[in-house]
Amino acid sequence: MYAIVEATWAVTGTTVPFTLHTPYSPIAQLILAGLAIAAGVACWATMRRVAQPDRIAIGGAFVLATPVLAMGATGLPGYFVTLASGSGLESATGLAHVLLSSALTALLVLVALSYRRRLAGACPRCGQR
Fold this sequence. Notes:
Number of strands: 0
Number of helices: 5
Helix content: 55-70%
Distance between the termini: 34 Å
Radius of gyration: 17 Å
Largest sheet: none
Structural class: mainly alpha
Strand content: under 5%
Oligomer: single chain
Order of helices and strands: HHHHH
């Protein structure tokens, strides 16, 4: 979903604010869409046993995608304060981008944690052996 939204915004030229007066470029949005696809493939690959080179690729996708997508979620407190104070929404696309980045980052962290636990022979949910 995130990749589709980012690619659609890039193709249509929708302005998504990076900072107050600087929007994301279409290339940056396509790079984010590619990272989201790589993260989705890595999440899908964690459902089965894989060989060592594939484990390295899966871990690399998580290590690369999670911090980049987490950077997109840093504006969430600012949007919360703006909405809670009743000041009105500055950018609907910016809020959508921050919310999607936050959700995807949380999902990636949880999938990576359960994957590491499963590889260690522990319960993916609680971590107990």
